[in-house]
Amino acid sequence: MKPVGPEQIQDTHEHDYISLSVSNLKKYKQMKKILLIIAVGLGIISCEQDDYLVDGGLSDGHVRTTTFDFLKSHDQLDTLALLIERGGFVEEVNGVSTLFAPNDLSIKNYVNKVLAEMRQIDPEAEFTVDDIPVDTLTKYLGGYIFTDRIRREDMVKEGRIYSAINGEERRLSLEPTQEYTDQLSEYPEYVYYTYKGGSDWDDWNNITDDTKIVVRTSNLISTNGIIHVLQGSHTLFNYKD
Known about the structure:
alpha+beta; FAS1 domain; 241 residues; 2 domains; 7 strands
């Protein structure tokens, strides 16, 4: 189910709003603020429409199963589970770990970009998820897995540099955003997962070469670790066409 967006909240009962008394008007405004906070805080993943952001941490993010079993059971993360299994990372994912999970849309972005390149050479070329080489998975998939439990509460706006299990570095941060500031008294905060683009890291608030990916749903707690789901606009492995 698509969560209620801020624009929907603002339009709700517009005509009733005009006729409210002063006391009820205050109550109504307070209710709007509560609904907006709920909308921002819900971390629902959508493959069909991934252009709206909802994150703020969940009130209860416990999934009550292992990380790998959660991925397999979720219809937007089950393709990632297949790749993790093919790449030989099930044990790592089910250990004490943090996973920044690319969803099905991110994987589809990768497949489409690879296929587009192949068809520039051979218009009849085919490429699917099943055709991703195992050595590619072995080399790059570990960049989403960390051997620490990294919660959003552990992050700062400037970010900290962490080494993933494949040896690559990522900057993980919790940054305020100016979205919804006309409705909320405090800035919402989003988790970011950032690739280094040049020889040095960009300043967290002045990105030029690095690639910053926003986390769509943060702080899912499995029985063995932490899961943060990346926004679907991300392309698996940060692949550039």
